[in-house]
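User: Please run a holo structure prediction.
Assistant: Happy to. Please share the sequence and the ligand.
User: Here you go; the ligand is heme C.
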Amino acid sequence: MKSDNQNNDTLILTIAKATQTIVLLFVLAILVVVIGIIEANTHAIYKAFNQPEMNTTDSLAQKQEAKPDYWVAPDVATIPNSPEGELIKYGRELIAHTAKYLGPEGSVMQISNGMNCQNCHLEAGTKPYGNNYGSVASTYPKFRARSGTMENIYKRVNDCFERSLNGKPLDTNSKEMQAIKIYIEWLGKGVPKGKEAKGSGIVDLPFLDRAADPVRGKIVYEQKCASCHKKDGSGELKPDGKEWLYPPLWGEKSYNHGAGLYRLSRFAGYVKYNMPLGVSYPESQLTDEEAWDVAAYINSMPRPSKDLSKDWPDISKKPLDHPFGPFADGFDEKQHKFGPFKPIKEKRETRTKQRK
Ligand code: HEC
Ligand code: HEC
């Protein structure tokens, strides 16, 4: 017969063992839960990084997923406090407020139409796909077929003065040109020579299967643009009367027909990810069709002209959407202006292949 003491001991031992097992099971359960949470999170993080574009209809968006590794302009706070730094700051000021210094009532010279470079090169030339200057310092001087020559930054800046700002060129030695150049170089200093920064310039939208349509474009314009740029495209001045609150899109005070924006692909790519004001890549409020059509409408309206007889000395190098003949590919001015561009592209590619 066992004594009461022995019985008690067995009981205690059993309880102890049971507790041990429960604790062990508990710890195991916690481990399983913790591992589960870690797994789930890893999946969420992985998914977040690999999420495809919201806008899946866009072939460009598919090619270049929105990654946070776009070129970012250097911080203005890092501009040195030196004579060189002062020139960089002046350059930035001239890009942002060109009209104040160089417009029709400019305080330094009167050589341009009253627009600011920043009206088209948004945020002083730093906005992703906002026609920024990220790749200028790294890629110039370069050969450009429009002039048929090697172009340096001075030449490219003056192109925009003479075309986009429908004005006169700046003297290369002027303080203003030096300031603009040094600012553009400072912006691009982190981009290796010969490389293009991601997100620089303007997006290339896919071509439509049809010609861009100014009639449809007018409807887009009146619904999504006219509230700021005005029904007649003339824009609105700021109260100071010098700079634009909303820059003009056509008419005497707008860019001339030698400007980059006069090419439909440049205009469509620019507005798709920047207009109406406040839109930023990869978001957009315009379908590709609306972007092409509104470009066709605006670029069918009157604007200043320019002598372009010296442009594109090699006519076979004209961009598909350069709207002025003669052309080497047999398509007419109308198709080169509005499209459809795919047949032109295909014919040119077949010819190149045949020549090889
Ligand atoms: C009306 C719009 C407009 C205005 C105003 C304008 N530009 Fe431009 N600029 C363009 C377009 C369009 C391009 C060509 C972009 C492309 O082909 O991708 C361009 C290209 C450039 C480039 C070459 C960019 C590159 O990556 O190769 C430079 C430099 C430049 N502009 C400087 C200026 C300066 C400086 C001013 C002011 C004096 C100015 N632009 C005003 C529309 C404009
Ligand atoms: C909410 C007002 C607003 C709306 C709506 C708007 N824009 Fe703009 N747009 C601006 C402003 C402001 C600028 C100049 C940006 C700057 O200087 O920073 C500008 C600049 C431009 C430019 C380059 C400068 C020029 O005058 O050539 C183009 C092209 C343009 N807009 C086209 C459009 C089109 C097309 C639409 C409609 C799809 C549109 N905008 C809708 C306010 C607007």
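Residues 38-66 have pLDDT under 50 and may be disordered.
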